Amino acid sequence: MRNIRQQITENLIPVFRRKLSGVDALPQLAVLGLLSGIVTGAVILLFRLAIEWPLEHFLPGAGSENFEQLDILTRGLLPLAGAVGLGILLHKLSIHDRKVGIVHIMERLNYHQGYISFKSAMVQFVAGVTTVVSGQSAGREGPAVHLGAAFSSLFGQWLRLPNNSIRTLVACGCAAAISASFNTPIAGVIFAMEVVMMEYTIAGFTPIILAAVSAAIITQIVYGSEPAFSVPALTMNSLLEIPWILAIAVIIGIAAAAFIHLVDNMGRHHHRPVLLRITVAGLLMVPFAILVPETMGIGYDTVSETIHGELGFWLLLGVGVAKLVITGLSIGLGMPSGVIGPTIFMGATLGGAMGLIGAQIFPELASSVGFYAMLGMGAMMGAVLQAPLAALMALMELTRNPNIILPGMLIITTASLVTSEAFGKKSLFLTILKNQGLSYQNSPVIQALRRVSVGAIMDRSILRTDRELTPDEARKALKSEPKWLLVEGSNGPTALLPAVDLARYLEDTEKQVAEEGIDPPDTVDLMEIPANRRDVAPVQYQATLEEALNEFDSTQAEALYVQRHVAPMIQRVYGVVLQSDIESYYQYRRS
C-alpha cells in the first residue's frame, strides 16, 4: 500500500501538474472543478449552520430571521454589541488579515494569482457569522463566495498546482458558493466569470459548471431542491406594461447609483482606525434596528413577503430606502458583511413598491406585485454589480419561469445602463478596489497570459553544470545533447549559454592544438569562453506567463530558470524560459 501511495506521489501528481500548466488541460480542470464544488458545498453548509442554529434558538418564534419580534432594547443593543466585538477582533489583526469578501478575492486574483490564506478564510467565517447573527444589515452570499474561493485556493496550494490552475479553482469556488447559497447553478457560473474573473473562456466553463452543479447537489441533500425563495407563478399581463417597466428600470438605476456613491464616499474614511469605523457603523445601525427592524440580518423573510404581495406601499418603500442607506453606510465604513443579499432586498422592496403604484394607475393591466418585486431584484443586482447576465440567470433560476425572460432582460439592461452611463458608476466591487488604491487588470493580453503556466512553454533541454570543467567533462556534458547549459555559481545559477557554443569552442580548441601543437587547456571556464551568455533569474514552476513577464521587467534578466521547492533548502530546476518564448506563444495562440 505504501509503495502504491509513493508511486502516485512521485509519478501521477507531477504528470497531473504538468498537464495543468497549459491552457488545454480540460480533463484535469474538470476533475478539479468537481472536487472544488464538493469542498465548497460542505463549507457553505457549515457556514449556514453556524448562522441559522444560534438565530433559531435566540430569536422568538419560528425561523432564523424574526428580528422584528425582539423587544426594542434588544434590537438596539444587539447590532452595537456585535459591531464593537467585530471592531475589537479586526483591530487586533494586521491590515492585510482584515480584508474579506468578494473584493478581497478579486485583489488576490489580480495581484497574487489567487493565493488565499487559511487565516483569511477563518476571519471571513467568524466575521460573516457575526454580522448576520448580530443583526447587521448583511448578506451571507459575499462571505460564502470568499469561503468557497479560499478553500478551493487552499486545495490547489496543497497540491502545489500551477498558478493558472489555482486561478481557475478560485473561480470554481465562487461559482459553487453562489450555486450553494441560492440553489442557482447557472447564475453561479455566470457570476464567477462576469463579476469575479471578468472573462469568459471555453476551457473555464467546464470546471466551473461542474463545481456549481456538485455544490448545488451537496446543498440539495440538506435543504431540498427548492430555490432560495418560494416564487408564485409570475407573468406579464400585457405588453402595455413595458413603458412602466422602463420607468422602474430608471428608478432602480438611480437607486443603484446612489448606493454605489454612498459606499464610495464612506469608503474614503478607510484610513481611520478600524475599531472606530466599525463601532460607528454599529451605532448608525441602532436607530434603523429600532425603527425599521426589517433591515436587520439577511431579510429574506421580508423579500418572500414582498414577492407574495403581503406588504403595503409605504412599508416597502420605507424598508427599501432604509436598507439602501444603512447598508451603504455600513459597507463603506468597513463592516465585513456581504452585499448581494442586501442588493436583492433593496431591489425586491423598491420593485414591489413601484408595482403597487402601477396597480393603482393601471389596475386592469398591471401584473402582480411579486412580478415587479422579482424584476426589481434582478435590476438592482445587475446595476450594482454591473453584471446583467448573472442577474438575468439568477432571476430565471429563482422564478423557474421563462415568461420573465423578456421583461427581465429589458429592466436589467436598462437599469445597468442608467447606473453606468448616466451616472458614470462602475461595479460596486471595482469602486471599492479603486478606493483602496487598487485596480483590476482584465485586458485580453493579461487574461491570455494568466491562463498559462511557465511549465507549458519552458525548454526542458537543459543541463546544470559547474563554471569550470575539464575538457573531458565538457565533452561528457555534451553527449546528452542539451540545448542550454545553466552555469552554477556560489549562490545558484548565474548564466545561461547555448550548448552549441561550448561544442564550437571545444572543436576550435582541438583544431588549434592539432595545427599549432600547443598543449590543450586544463580547464574550460564557461564564463570566459566565447559564447552568447544570458543573465538569469529564477521563477517558480507554478508561475503564470504574466508573472514571468513581470519577473523579466523587475530583474532585467535575459532568461528565467524555472525552479520548484522539492525539499527544505533544495530547489530543483526544470527548464528555462526566454522572453521571446512568451511572445511567440502568445502570437501563436492568437493566430
UniProtKB/TrEMBL annotation:
InterPro entries, sorted: Cl-channel_core (IPR014743), ClC (IPR001807), ClC-type_chloride_channel (IPR050368)
Recorded GO MF terms: chloride channel activity
Subcellular localization: Membrane
Gene Ontology cellular component annotations, sorted alphabetically: chloride channel complex
Designated name of the protein: Chloride channel protein
Major site of localization recorded for this protein: membrane
Keyword Protease belongs to the record: no
UniProt keyword Acyltransferase present: no
Membrane topology: Multi-pass membrane protein
Organism this protein belongs to: Marinobacter nauticus (Marinobacter hydrocarbonoclasticus)
Superkingdom per UniProt: Bacteria
Gene3D superfamilies: Clc chloride channel
One Pfam short name: Voltage_CLC
Keywords: Chloride, Chloride channel, Ion channel, Ion transport, Membrane, Transmembrane, Transmembrane helix, Transport
TM stretches of this protein: 29-51, 72-90, 200-222, 242-262, 274-292, 312-332, 344-363, 369-392, 404-424
